[in-house]
Amino acid sequence: MSIFPRSKYLDQVMRFRDDNLIKVITGLRRCGKSTLLTLISQRLLDDGVPSERIILINLESLSADTPKDSQSLYKYFQQRTGTDCLYILIDEVQRIDRWEEAVNAMRVDFACDIYVTGSNAFLLSSELATYLSGRYVEIKMLPLTFKEYLEFRGLISPNADIDQMHYEVLTDGESFFSINQLFIEYRQYGGLPYLATRPTTINEHRVYMDTLYQSVITRDILDRESWRSRRISNPDLLRRILLFLSDNIGNKNSFNSISNTLKSEKLNHSSATVEAYVSALEDAYLFYPVSRYDIKGKDYLKTLGKHYIVDLGLRNYLSGYRDTDQGRALENIIYLQLLYYGYDVSIGTYQNTEVDFIVAKPGKRVYIQVADSIDDALTFERELSPLIRIRDAYPRYVIVGRGDHPVDIEGIRIVRATDFLLQSWGEDL
């Protein structure tokens, strides 16, 4: 299978090449971390590094010589060291208990440059971050953006200046595809790289997601949590909370509200138990929590945040492929795009109204509302009213899935969702 470049991540990690820092690549299983290691290896070869100085191993391999503990991991690379820099690339490093001790010792003892991947946020939990303090940089990977999805489908070139393209209809050289239909497919099947490289049916998607679900739930949550203090051991409870969060993306929730919902189903679990299970799902990169920010009071609120799922294809798999809640699905896609761009994202509250996203970078703030459609008068009022009421000078946008609208309404920019997802200006709001 061809390897497709994901230039943003490759460029990001290679900025730290030959620094005395451990490069830690994190993200959901099958989002492309292993491929990124391969791309790093190829970049090193292209730059003239001898192949024998590049060592890539996958710790999930059952090969007899694959290290099984921290000491054998250290010795595996020790016997390959020399005077020249050794490039160490370790896939799924969390499979080794106390990996951080071995990796940090290699950083100290060898002439080397180290790159590792992991599929659970415990990889950089507070304990490990303290142990490796100042000695690592994290590169956070996500599934494909819509633009990357089109690249993987062979419909646009990775180097294409899409801002100058007419992209209402795209072709792979054999067939023509409307941008709206492609976006519907992306919303349905999600952005996992393997699925974007080939035509996909619901049955094929279900089989693939079955194996992903089992890998994440079993390997990255239940097995890993069994020896930790949180004791996540009830697969049925884990699935119920997973389904609740998936069904309620973009809705305000609390651990108490989830606990009360479970009690209504005759399942008595405390909010502390719910919090532990939700944290485990977050650690496996299945969901991202978003806090609320009081725009007028200029402070973060501790209650009623939201969660967004890492991939809408996973949500559709869990829901039985019901194509509902298109507005919240679009909101989820925009949230992930903002993360991809590197923004800090929070939910805004202002005088009893809500702004979907406050987007921040140093010295910048942008307010964004997301709606599948604003054709209906009530929806139009609901989406624009909070932005109109905010009196500061920061930019304001409404990102819309469907319909034709003026580009500016009372100083608020109205943007079509596919334009925001494909054009480069969104990276510098």
Write up this protein:
The protein is of the alpha/beta class and 429 residues long. The chain folds into 4 domains: 7-140, P-loop containing nucleotide triphosphate hydrolases (Rossmann fold, 3-Layer(aba) Sandwich); 146-196, no CATH class; 202-324, Arc Repressor Mutant, subunit A, CATH 1.10.10; 338-428, Trna Endonuclease, Chain: A, domain 1. The protein is built from 16 helices and 15 strands. Strand 12 (364-371), helix 15 and strand 13 form a beta-alpha-beta unit. Helix 3 packs parallel to helix 4 (99-109). The mean pLDDT is 90.
CATH topology type of the largest domain: Rossmann fold
Mean pLDDT: 90
Count of DSSP strands: 15
- CATH architectural label of the largest domain: 3-Layer(aba) Sandwich
The portion of residues assigned to helices is 40-55%
The quaternary structure here is single chain
Query: Helix- and strand-based class?
Result: alpha/beta
Overall tally of structural domains: 4
Task: Give the strand order, joined by hyphens, for the main sheet.
Answer: 9-8-10-11-12-13-15-14
> Low-confidence parts, pLDDT < 50 over ≥5 residues?
none
Shape: globular
Give the termini distance in whole angstroms.
Answer: 36 Å
Q: Beta-strand percentage?
A: 15-25%
The description of the largest β-sheet is: 8 strands, mixed
CATH homology-level superfamily of the largest domain: P-loop containing nucleotide triphosphate hydrolases
CATH class of the largest domain: Alpha Beta
- From the alpha carbons, calculate the radius of gyration and give it in angstroms: 23 Å
Label this structure with key terms.
Rossmann fold, 429 residues, 4 domains, 16 helices, Arc Repressor Mutant, subunit A, single chain, 21% strand
